[in-house]
Amino acid sequence: MRAALAGRPPPGPSRPEFWRSPLRGPWLTSVLGVVLLVGLTVVTGTGMLSYAAYNPGLGPPNDMTPDKGLLGFYLFPWPTSPYWLYRLTQGMHVTVGLVLIPVLLAKLWSVIPRLFAWPPIRSLGHALERISLILLVGGALFEFVTGVLNIQLEYIFPGSFYPLHFYGAWIFLAALVVHVALRMGKVRAALRGRSLREELRTPTRRTKPESPDEDGLVSPAPAAPTISRRGALGMVGLGSLVMLAVTAGQSIGGALRTTALLAPRGQNPGTGPNGFQINKTAEARGIRESDVGPRWRLTVRGAGREIVLGRDRLLTMPQHTAHLPIACVEGWSTTDQEWSGVRLADLAALAGYDTQPPGVLVESLQRSGSFRSAALRDNQVRDPDSLLALRVNGADLSLDHGYPARVIVPANPGVHNTKWVTTLTFGNPADTT
Ligand SMILES: Nc1nc2c(c(=O)[nH]1)N[C@H]1C(S)=C(S)[C@@H](COP(=O)(O)O)O[C@H]1N2
Ligand SMILES: [Mo]
Fold first, then answer.
1. What is the pLDDT, as a whole number, of residue 417?
2. Are 371 and 42 in contact (CB under 8 A)?
3. Residue 261, CA atoms < 13 Å, CB-side half-sphere
4. pTM higher than 0.70 for the full model?
5. What is the CATH number of domain 289-426?
6. Under a CB-based contact definition with an 8 Å cutoff, are residues 77 and 49 in contact?
7. Suppose 361 and one of 33, 327, 394, 425 were both cysteines; which one would form an S-S bond, judging by CB atoms 3.0 to 4.6 Å apart?
8. Which among 417, 421, 423, 424 is the best mutation to test ligand 1's pocket, defined by most ligand atoms within 8 Å of the CB?
9. Which residues line ligand 1 (CB under 6 A)?
């Protein structure tokens, strides 16, 4: 049995001569691997920050992964300054992730003969290595696919995006650490074996296969080259540049917004004071005109007190102005908008917390669906730029931007800037961070 398995592989992709590209080899794989490693470090780091930005330590409704255990080891109170922090980190997470797609595909192409290696399992060590590769490749594909689906289509898969993308990331990361540790030596040797500069000067007609390698990446029966390594790397780079060009505008904004052809929220959010991106419209969230008319009231609860205010009353309180962006987990963000309204700290004072206000649970009119409420930490309530906004860019909030009142907090993920607010409950929720 063993001899049969170890013998000649069945016809098809398990035969080394099936794979004929003269470009495949340890050098090309290593170059793509290094680019991917640098990029994925950025994507992973900003992804971990994105998770921390939700302040999951505040418990429900923020925490969508209550069973995270030790995986939350690095969580820290998300700051409110610099106010553009989440705009930057999440813009990078999504943009760099999308830009890496061509590199990831090229890297997988470069190692595909190994997927069919024969015999499939040679030893226990080999079996373990292959399992780690399944977790690595599967984890990478899973993270890219869930990420892209979340920004393009939103939550079409069963369950919530957050736990899937979060736990998937840890599986992927563990497999990546193993992979890098196992391959670092080979990568070094492969990169030393050929000069990048030389390779970038080599045209197709002078392109030669790499020398045979023990991993079987180099074809034993290479076809004549139809493209140079320079050309192949150039195509991947061009693919990444195109991804960058059609997405980065959604985070950078201004005139570039019109170039963000792949951006899910459209390139033209309209004009006027309320002419900036809308995530969920009032209609989509089932907000009724009657809910937000003259009968709308804000309930502020605190240390044994409960106050009910109308919008007119809120407008007679000291109004404060802050220039802040909306930055969504989906990667898009707005440029700074001029919000004005009542400071959250002033509302906390109404509720009995004159100094050092605690955190707050914010609830909206929205009856169901995600993001109808969010918890903010004490540092977020205390920031003088944290507002219950009533107006934006000199006009009343539009219904879609959260009229009669919405939260806006510096560096806060968009999803926690709750629209159509009805209740603020001050007090520190169980903080397990
Ligand atoms: N009540 C409520 N608030 C909400 C949402 C929601 O669906 N319901 N969406 C959030 C998300 S995901 C984002 S990115 C911001 C977007 O704010 P905007 O639509 O005013 O740009 O609002 C947040 N506030
Ligand atoms: Mo969002």
1. 98
2. no
3. 5
4. yes
5. 3.90.420.10
6. no
7. 425
8. 417
9. 277-280, 285, 326, 328, 364, 366, 371-372, 401-402, 414-415, 417-420
